[in-house]
Amino acid sequence: MLIFSVETSCDETAVAVTRNGREVLSSEVFSQADMHALYGGVVPEIASRNHVAVLCRLSELALNKAGITKKEIDAVAVSYAPGLIGALLVGVSFAKGLALSLGVPLIPVHHIRGHIAANYIAYPELTPPFLALIVSGGNTLIADVRGYTDIRVIGASRDDAAGECFDKVARVLGLPYPGGKPLDDLSQGGDDRLYKLPRAVIEDHPYDMSFSGLKTAVVNIVHNAAQKGEALDRASLAASFSCAVSEMLVPRTMAAARELGRDRIAVAGGVAANSRIRADFVRAAEAEGKTLFIPPLSLCGDNAAMIGCQGYYEYLDGRTAGMDLNAYATMDMDNVFI
Fold first, then answer.
1. CA 272 to CA 294: how far, in whole Å?
2. 216-234: per-residue pLDDT in tens?
3. Which pTM does this prediction carry?
4. Which of 123, 135, 155, 214 is buried most deeply by CB count within 10 Å?
5. CA 32 to CA 50: how far, in whole Å?
6. How far is Cα 38 from Cα 176, in angstroms, rounded to an integer?
7. Where are the alpha helices (DSSP H) in 139-233?
8. CA Rg, the chain, in Å?
9. Which residues sit opposite 12 in a β-bridge?
10. Could you give the angle at which helices 212-228 and 162-172 cross, rounded to 10 degrees?
């Protein structure tokens, strides 16, 4: 089954052609990072307008690289929630028009489910059940993946997402947007214990997280140093921050896997590209005899291949939509309406 997929939940315009939920024939991503870097973050209106500007040309490129024509497409999948509402609407509108014109099914895909599915592309041997940590710019949660479409959230951030904190901490340290990689690079060689930073614990909810206090602590350290004219070890602060984030993610994920009896753990989302988090997960999995799955860097960020992959399993489960499909800025992953 050939699925053409569309992903426009934030500032990457992405399209892909996938076969049977595992094989990627083409995957194209147009990044708007340079445009939004001027403002230190994503400007929703600019993101939406640029999706409109490039979607048609990017789609033709994806079809050409896949070596197929539009008539060979069996279904169209699209990320419809969660994300920036204007950006999502562009992708949903484009996907509805394409599906209608070709007379093929339209498959709505929850963006976070797509991130989990990135591991299916990287690891053909991975099948449910397993435990998943999804950590990105807009979402941080732990989920029990019981089946391809049977996913239950067991823990999540109560406030900021980990990826959002990475960007804000990078900004206060004077690093360019997006801040994840520059902060990761800066942290190399820094002393990750030099700065004492908080690790939030949510009473009676062991798998929930909070990152706002950590972000505020870093901001205060930087501002206090500037006000007092004191030297700031930026590399060590970056390393200490990365360590704190990892120590809130890894132990919770491993504990959840133990409680649920899951021997396989998948990590997904843009923050999964962070070298400290990846290394800590590798060590923890080896220590406990768990099998770890982390996608390559190319599949950690937003892309349409993951949407097409998950879309295949949504289709097999009978989850298709009509031309009344809407986009949603927020939606729980384990409570999709389709």
1. 7
2. 999 999 999 999 999 999 9
3. 0.94
4. 135
5. 8
6. 9
7. 162-172, 180-187, 212-228
8. 20
9. 31
10. 10
pLDDT band at 338 (very low <50, low <70, confident <90, very high): very low
206 prior amide bond cis, ω within 30: no
Per-residue CA distances from 145 to 128, 236, 278 (Å): 6, 36, 20
* Tokens read off for 186: 């800066």
Mean pLDDT of 109-131: 97
Total Cβ atoms within 10 A of residue 66: 21
Q: Among 2, 65, 3, which residue's Cα sits nearest to residue 29?
A: 65
| pLDDT band, residue 336 (cuts 50/70/90) | low
Gap between the Cα atoms of 74 and 311, Å rounded: 12
If pLDDT is split at 50, 70 and 90, which confidence band does 41 have? confident
Q: What is the pLDDT of residue 178?
A: 87
Residue among 205, 194, 184, 213 at smallest CA distance from 273: 184
- pLDDT, tens digit (0-9, with 9 covering 90-100), for 3-26: 999 999 999 999 999 999 999 999
Decide the pairing of beta strands 2-7 and 75-81.
Answer: parallel
Please, what is the end-to-end C-alpha distance for the chain in angstroms? 21
pLDDT digits (tens, 9 = 90+) for 61-92: 999 999 999 999 999 999 999 999 999 999 99
- HEC-encoded secondary structure of 61-99: HHHHHHCCCHHHCCEEEEEEECCCHHHHHHHHHHHHHHH
The type of residue at 51 is H
Look at strands 140-145 and 291-293 and give their pairing.
Answer: unpaired
Tell me the H-state helices in the chain.
33-37, 44-66, 85-102, 111-122, 162-172, 180-187, 212-228, 234-260, 275-288, 297-300, 305-316
pLDDT score, position 36:
86
Domains in the chain with CATH codes: 2-115+300-335 (3.30.420.40), 127-294 (3.30.420.40)
